[in-house]
User: Fold these one by one.
Assistant:
Number 1:
Amino acid sequence: MFKFAKQREALWPVDLVAADRAMDADGNLVTHRVFIRYRLMTRDELAEANEATTRITAERLREARGNDASANLVELMAVSREVEQRTYDDLLARITGWREGDIADEEGNPLAFDRGIVASLCEDTANYQALLRGLYAASRGAQAKN
């Protein structure tokens, strides 16, 4: 039986990079598969995220019109920061947990879910990108399966 849930969540596999940045024999970063629980984005929320990026960019370019080229570059960098902050904030809000035992401290003791730990993971660009890809994949994949 299909069970409808207004606010859907999914546990989704994500490959995180180890803190020691170890490399395998082929020179690739060693990753560890963990399962992250996401509050999924709806089709409208996915579209809004794309529209927001376009809207913010257009607004900043409109504001910069008439300025010199270096001012336009500064405006574009500000747009990038603004969009990135919005994306980061949304990602942190949508990660609601992880599979028990998947994330541990340096001694190997399992860590309970904590947004501070998620924020620390996001300080590593590779992990931030992996978590963000996981959110989009879970949202799109879960939609495709329903």
Number 2:
Amino acid sequence: MKRLLFLLIIVFLNSCQQSTNSSESEKPTEDKIVEPVFVDTIKVESEQVKPAKSEIKETITPDDTEGNRILVDRIHLFETGEPYVWVGLKEGFNWRAMDSLKKYADSVIFQDDFETKRTRYPWDKAHEYLDLELLDGITIFNYQHQNFGKSRLKRIEYHEDVLGDQFVGILEPTDQLVGNKFYGINEVDQFVNDLESRTVNDSEIKDSIKKHIGIDSKYQWELSSWMIYPYNLTYTFYSFVSNEEKEKSFLIETNSKLENRVMSEITNDYSIMELTPVPIQLNKRPLLLLWVGPPETDIEWFTPAVFNGVYYEITNNRILELNQFLKISRTDNDSIQCSSEVLLATQQNIDDLDIIAIHNFLRTFDKECRNNAEYSEWSNELLFELLDKNIEALVNELSKPDLNSAMIIDELESPITDKYLPSGLILKVEELRASPMRDAILSSLRTADGKY
């Protein structure tokens, strides 16, 4: 059963995350492979250290990464030292097609005594049935973020082992690989410089996170923290089973002031098991590559997580359209954007607004309104008044997907009047249960409070 579940998960995730626009490139020549140099990188990654104050470096926020359609994925290694990525099926095919497609595999590349077999798959059939988009030209990094240059897609294989069958793409790197854990990025030429990350064992951070979440755990799966430079931010994934027998998993950001912010809350039946930042930045935060899966099973996969201006979206898709995550970028030509009529109705009924009225008010916010001075001032005043009078409803509504939540969160950093001081609003927000939206609001109010 585990083997079937693993096959279903892997085939589904890889096939749904790739589009059908694979290029019909020439069959590459299969030159001698460049074997990686294996070093003890586990110690470097996992050494438990508590950062002293002297280790806090100057915080530098690099420029956001330029690009649109990109690939981010884990690069695996065979025992022969060859790097590879999983390959999904083109749209229109699913896991039921595997038996009929594998018959085209024509020559054995590798076979051992433990049910592992690798067979070459012809290029013409690979282009016909498999999704090869963005697999050629992947830049390979190790988990210390060392860049080994672009690789080429050398060949396609049909891979069989005890956990299931899958297609894989064998990569040929430009430089000799050093390390034993790698990730790959494609269609990005500008990377974040001086990216560093390491695990930290800081009991103060871990205790503050448990207090911040405020949920008693019956069993703790994982509580691991990573310090990320040049941002001077600590990211922690906290996975546990609550006293109510519910599996919980949180991604939390902690700044140098020990202020915690929930960046993602997984309500599905899987947990975060590992994270690593990659040298791509969007909305002033690094993109993260997560290793996730249901606890105590053989089912697992890697997925990017992208900061959308409010929280990290766990995409379960290795190909990303970066423009979809740009902060304050969503303009859907809503009929009530920048509407003074809606603002007037909100003001007249501010003490008796229902959910629909609150939602309509929030719909008026849009980047196009920034050049409208009257709207900007009026909407800012109403936003802070609404936050004071109906904080819980505001937090709930801001989670709706049709709102420009990132822009509204930004608005809370700059109150126009002193009628509702951020310090008082912070106390009200802190009474709510920790969540990505609640903590995003809290972060903005702290920024605003720092201006007084």
Number 3:
Amino acid sequence: MKRFALPIILFLASLLAGCTVAPLVRGSKLQEDAAPINGLVVQIFAGELGQFENLNSTEITSYRTAFATAFSTRFPEILKANGLTVPVTQVYLGTPPNSLPFQIPTANASHQLILLMTGIRYSTRGGSKDGYAGVLFKARLIETSTKKVVWTSSPSLTLHPHQPNRQTEHFAASIINGLAEAKLIKLGGQFAMDLKGEPIHYSTMLHADK
């Protein structure tokens, strides 16, 4: 048992320091000749979590309030910090629509990013939720001139009720890194940056919000 002590200690130390793995959601580029993004309209259909079992009132309230605010403020701020022009960001709560809307707000943007909440995911122990739930989304990137979907992905958001800004940054970074991997945007560095110009990495649940 003693020979495993040092690796375990180093592993726990890395968790406390914050993991250096950058968030990334690999998507599907549906149009190989799709033009790079030049201006992005963002529409987030955040939905409602009250109907899901095993979520407590703190998580549900935080999603309706703090996370909704982070969607409308921190999410576009991270996009802009990574070189994207975001003239419009709209956040909708309540029951998601049955189909993705294609009505694009008037704006100087080459693409529209639609994020539609589709459900939640969590692990269980003894029949109860263990840890923080993940809120699942379906992402669609639409070329405004042709109304064609050119990229899709399935990002998820960690529902840590005391880290709305931090987790929204991770959520945004995973999408940004995916768009960069598909060559739809070009980053200044290897990974998406935060508002201080530092790479956004996965961090532990022990960190304070940003």
